[in-house]
Amino acid sequence: MINLEVARASRRLTRGDRVELTIPVADPPRDLVPCDRPLSVIYEDEALLILDKPAGLVVHPAPGHWDDTLLNALVARGTQLSAGGGRPGIVHRLDKDTSGLLIVAKTDEVHRSLGGALARRKIARTYATLVWGHVNDAIEIDAPVARHPKDRKRMAVLATGRRAVSQVEPVARFETCDLVRVHLVTGRTHQIRVHLAHIGHPVVGDPVYGHGGARRVTGEQRHEALAIEKLAPRQVLHAAVLRFTHPVNREALEFRSEWPADLLPALDTAGGEGLPLDRAKPLQYLGFFG
Asked: For the chain, N or C: smaller number of CB within 10 Å?
């Protein structure tokens, strides 16, 4: 209210106006209910831990997933977590159906340090993905990403969006798709999926940004493309490498995660009979890690 009268938000104030504000009582924060489920922890110390997140696991509570998330599992495990501004421990996120490496902070000081390193692009994150078509050369995609104007659940490349940069490098060429590595320079929501679709090479198995998926492949290769897509239970996207400096002891850390088992049939089929993949370490076999 202004001068004891209800006023529009656009009302301009003048000297001497009396303003009254009523601040609503905030809803109390939800308690994190423990959810006992196994987690693949590949590194842990007093400051942080590194997880290899499976596909299908939501990272933090949200509508529809209040008590079955990664955070709920960490609470059940008894892991110390930073306050994290409402998302305890979560330094960065992965989509529900993206698998791979994730950092969890145990203290507020470590969380702030890692968050700052992420903002300064000092945490290297590299993803492995199968994309439709062929990526001939390394490319940097510098295209702003924002919420889709008509579908709020999707993102899109829009001039009004926030700057987003992804570096894409081909690793292996198959008949209908390529294995590529993607280095995240920035970290916008759905960035990799949106960027790869934007350049005409959407992620195999992506139900949102796939642009027709296997149906985009024509001629004799259509049958193989359909077979690959049928064997992809989700978007074929995996967070395979993390590199950063430990926020406490300043040690240089690097973690690698091999190709996940649920995506191996799709990779096998994409490679064909002429590619005798090492089923235990296909990314290493294909030279993904350099």
From this structure: C
Active site residue 95: yes
Instruction: Catalytic residue, from 95, 97, 178, 206: name it.
Output: 95
Q: What is the pLDDT of residues 99-128, one digit of tens each?
A: 999 999 999 999 999 999 999 999 999 999
The neighbouring-strand residues paired with 52 are 101
Give the three-class secondary structure for 194.
helix
Q: Give the model confidence (pLDDT) of 145-156 as tens digits.
A: 999 999 988 999
Give yes or no for a contact between 250 and 114, defined as CB atoms under 8 angstroms apart. Answer: no
- 9-37 per-position pLDDT tens digit: 778 888 989 998 877 655 555 678 899 99
Cα separation, 202 vs 217, whole angstroms: 12
What is the pairing mode between strands 237-245 and 124-132? Answer: antiparallel
Burial of 179: CB neighbours in 10 Å, binned 0-12, 13-18, 19+: buried
Q: H helices of 205-271, where?
A: 222-231, 264-271
If you ran DSSP here, which 8-state letter would residue 89 be given? T
The pLDDT value recorded for residue 147 is 95
**Long-range contacts of residues 31-35, Cβ cutoff 8 Å, at least 24 apart:** 32/61, 32/71, 32/72, 32/75, 32/88, 33/66, 33/67, 33/72, 33/75, 34/72, 34/75, 34/76, 35/67, 35/68, 35/69, 35/72, 35/73, 35/75, 35/76
Q: Which sign, positive or negative, has the C-alpha torsion 117, 100, 268, 178?
A: negative
pTM greater than the 0.85 cutoff: yes
SS3 state of residue 103: strand
Domains and CATH numbers, the chain: 38-120 (3.30.2350.10), 124-290 (3.30.2350.10)
